[in-house]
């Protein structure tokens, strides 16, 4: 049984002037959709990138979209309350199946991208350099299907890799998803694992999605613990007091991505955005097919 409720027209009126506003970027079969949200309220949405979007990532004021033609990069406005990208630039990467944004160091944020042939590349965005003027650097190639990127971790059919100037295989097999924020975790065909003194198993059974906010994202309580979620054996589960617990009211649809701001957001392959509320899940259909992932950009 699902506790999901549709969002009313009144609740869709999420105003730009609300300092709590965040924007979700949703990768779908028709492009990347920008969706305004305030807590559990979902507001207006628009198609920010057209084409087939395979993945989306954000960090350091940058949003990156992996498409069937290129990796597109946009910058969030400099106003502290701005969460929208003014426009996306081509980078010359070519087709990509996964993308991530790694920490903003002295040289600025960097984008990691995986091509359909297993090649991994890095694009460093120095200062305000246009993405189209930066050069992709080769990070190596994996002789297996790449399923996901998160930070400097890569999930592939033959396990998990760490991506630096080269590639290091760090264990496991048949990885479906990875989360680099906070405690690194991997979802595999055999179960859910966290990285400690080696990979430690947390839940047995096929795992397809894993995500965490690393304890850094958007909650009203600055001392709130890390939020982490996963899909294991087709059940949506959350980390609570060190234990993985299945939601008593499961979200409708196939969950393919999780994002965090002041609340937790899910997207389903069928094109719905779900927001966690006190009384269950609040749902809104985006009317787009083949959703593949989601990220949240909150106010700075």
TrEMBL record:
Ranges where the HVO-0234-like beta-propeller domain occurs: 8-295
Pfam families in the cross-refs: Beta-prop_HVO_0234
Protein name, entry field: HVO-0234-like beta-propeller domain-containing protein
